[in-house]
Request: fold
Amino acid sequence: LVRYPAGNTPARQVMLTHKPLLMGKDDWSQTGEGYQVNSSIHVPLKTSQCTLGVLSVDRKDSDTQFTGEDKEMLVQLAGFAAVALDNSTLFQQVGPARTRIEGLGDS
Reply:
């Protein structure tokens, strides 16, 4: 089951396209969200099998816009985060089996 954010949001767009999104102040007025930011980046948290979610960074207090370089750095960070989340899920799934196997050695 995959849940997508409601409405015409950048997070929804990224979840549907699986591609990063760099937005400026004018782009936000087109979403109808009314969220006041000067620049934002939204990148998918992707594993080899799926997109887990979206990592977003907003810049409100500065007129400086995020750049393509900033977006690429966040894509790299999101990749590391997605691997960590995926590994955590796998570790939780393997935990009970590992406990049973370790218990067999005690017999």
Notes: DSSP finds three helices and three strands in the chain.
